[in-house]
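seq:
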Amino acid sequence: MSAHPVSNPVAPVLTMTLSDIIGYVASGLVLAAFCMKEIVPLRLVALCSNVAFLVYGVNMGLMPIWLLHGLLLPMNGWRLAQTLFERRPSDRVAARAPVLQHADRKAGRVSSRAPAHAARRLLPALGSEGFRTVRTSSALPPQSGN
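struct:
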């Protein structure tokens, strides 16, 4: 008979270090950034996640983590600054795009919607003669010659 060791009836205690907490916060910030639609809040959250991952990577000795986020931090900062200080309002404010496109047309510049507007004007002018009608049927037409 072999004796089986008695297992510990007490469940193991999960301990979380400060580095673990920082890692989870950083991961949550990345998830939050991926859920955002607007660029300025996205960049701000991404900057915070970069800082959190830098702290986490340095504390845990994870060179790939802190190296990556050390490179991403200035990139996100630069892109945020570009977005905030862009001179052309059409690049910054997407909600005003139709108004700005109308102003571009009045000024004689081609808007990004020009091909769609041209197609809408051209199609009715072609009339029904401009299109070949294709009829579909579940039955095959009779074959001649067989």
